[in-house]
Amino acid sequence: MFTHEELHVRAGRRTGLPIVVAVHSTVLGQALGGCRLWHYDDWRDGVEDALRLSAAMTAKNALAGLANGGGKTVVPLPPGVNVDADTRRALLHDVGDTIEALDGRYGTGPDVGTGPDDMVVIGERTPHVFCRPAAHGGSGSSSPGTAAGVIAALRATVARLDGDTELGGHTFAVVGLGSVGADVAGRLAAAGARLVVSDVRPDAETLAAELGARWSRPGDALTAEVDVVIPAALGGILTAELVPALRCRAVVGPANNQLAEPAVAGLLHERGILWAPDYVASAGGIVHAVASELYREPEDVVARRIERIGDTLTEIYAAGEAPDVTAEKLVAARLTPGTR
Ligand SMILES: NC(=O)c1ccc[n+]([C@@H]2O[C@H](COP(=O)([O-])OP(=O)(O)OC[C@H]3O[C@@H](n4cnc5c(N)ncnc54)[C@H](O)[C@@H]3O)[C@@H](O)[C@H]2O)c1
């Protein structure tokens, strides 16, 4: 069943390259979700991704308490097509025009393949853009906010596991030392936690040494014997085959779409492994952008909003059923008029 409000697929006027914008829901307000610029074998796969990711943004924004719905832009680059600086700029203008044509029903920000500087270029064609660098009037990278939200989620998780929110006495495996993973690992190391870290980039081993963390091969980090595994790389890593091999007590991280298939959430629950739905744990970045730029809240108020991710998870864990089931009920309740 088609449950989205709008789906736009256009060839960019300047570049001829495909641009997909999916608006899943504006029930709570302007739909928000980042702009993904990535290679796909077929542009239709980009449409699939935009449909799936925009629906996840509705859930993420609803559970983060934002007055916003979910949307997503995907620019599916054909295989072998690499854009030079001029084409990239033209392409981002094409994206801006596509978003501007929606009259404010959707706003974008950075995602895989785009960053704050790209938002400046999109912003030359539409005001509906977030996370420009501070020098351009935006709130900058969303990664520190996302990392702060993951820390709030981890505190709620260790409280559920052991009854206290101290991260220092616990062990964590961080899978992916990119902008969010490295930040989370740094905060955990500063709190005195013991860490196993991994990345497919060998140069990340230097950061591991700086953090006093044990370096591990990526496959091994996922199955490390730790309290919490933190997926901070790509999605789809939690497979039915992996669940029996896990030796952690919880899986909590920022990676979007961690489940290879929805049924894996139930398998984790049956094994007694706590799983924080990724759209709850990863919301800190968008909360930071929206609260700073749209609501104009000061940093301390924004920080408290991000902390509430922990409260939401505590509520979800307390229900005692598989966390995705409870989270979906909470999303449905928030989207139903009269219950917000
Ligand atoms: N940046 C944000 O604000 C934000 C917000 C919400 C969700 N997320 C999600 O969090 C995840 C991390 O985001 P990021 O901004 O840090 O991305 P990033 O690209 O900076 O970092 C990802 C890291 O994962 C590593 N990696 C890739 N495959 C790996 C593997 N198999 N094993 C171990 N490491 C691997 C990469 O080398 C890279 O260092 C992504 O799934 C992203 O969609 C990010």
From TrEMBL:
Keywords: NAD, Oxidoreductase. It holds the Pfam family ELFV_dehydrog. The keyword NAD applies. Residues 140-338 form the Glutamate/phenylalanine/leucine/valine/L-tryptophan dehydrogenase C-terminal domain. Transmembrane segments: none annotated. It comes from the Bacteria. Belongs to the Glu/Leu/Phe/Val dehydrogenases family. PANTHER family: LEUCINE DEHYDROGENASE, VALINE DEHYDROGENASE. This is Glu/Leu/Phe/Val dehydrogenase.
